Every structure is written in C-alpha cells, then in structure tokens.
Amino acid sequence: MRFTTTVLTATLLATGLSACVVAPYQQAPQPVAVQQVQRVDTGRVAQMELIRTQERPQATGGGALIGGILGAVIGHQVGGGFGKSAATVLGGVGGAVAGNAIESNQQPGQVHESYRVGVQADDGSYRYFSVPVQTDLRIGDRVRMGNGQLFRF
After folding, report:
1. What is the CA radius of gyration of the chain?
2. How many domains does the chain have?
3. Is residue 7 assigned to a domain?
4. How far apart are alpha carbons 123 and 8 in whole angstroms?
5. DSSP class of 61
C-alpha cells in the first residue's frame, strides 16, 4: 500500500509541476504588407439606360406649425369642459399632420439623372456602371474599366 501511495503522490506531483512549465518565448507573427493590384479590363459598351430618380422634398415645418394652430383654434370651438380641451389637442395634432402633408405636396422634388452603362468585357462577362448624364459614351465604344470607373479609348 505504501508503494501505491508513493507512486500516486509522484504522479500527482509530476502532473502538477508539468503544468507550471512555461513554453519557450515565441515572437508573434509580423503582418506582411500586401500590395493591391489594380485590375484594368477592357470591353465594349453594350447597353445604356437613362435612370431618373426623384428626391422627396424636405418639409420646413411651416405647414405643420400653421396647420397645428388652425386645427387647435377650430378644435377649441367644439365641445365644453374636458371635451373642449381634448378637441383642442386633437385639432392641433390633426392640423399639424395635415399642414405638413400639404406643404410636402406643394414643393416639387428634385430629379437626378444618370446613365446605367452595361459593358461587355473582353472575357465575355458583363459589368454595370453608373455614369453622369454628361457623357460622351455611345453603344459600341471601346472602354477601359478600372477602379469602378469607365474610360474611353
């Protein structure tokens, strides 16, 4: 029994001490600078589509203010006691919402135009670019594609 206790103690001691061993120092791997290669492809303009987008006008708040005041005045004419107060508040809120909607509908939205240009690359793949309206590109033109832009050549 004494032999078993000694072996067990030695095993536990060896296991405990081996957990305290520190691995040799290793330097952390250093990052390597990678140069990004610019990819330049060529192709032909295959498609041009005019895209028009309209921006919703921004309300200034004047319509909501005037509508709220008018709604509150009209609501104040209705009911009596607590009902008069509730009608004034509801009239003010309803008038503000209506005034804001009327103001938004009175202002025209700004229209933006651009071309969606489809290019068939020399490898047969298609890529699409958004180009401002003032462009001299035509269908069939040879183009160079690089960094998300088109260049005629």
Report:
1. 37
2. 2
3. no
4. 73
5. S
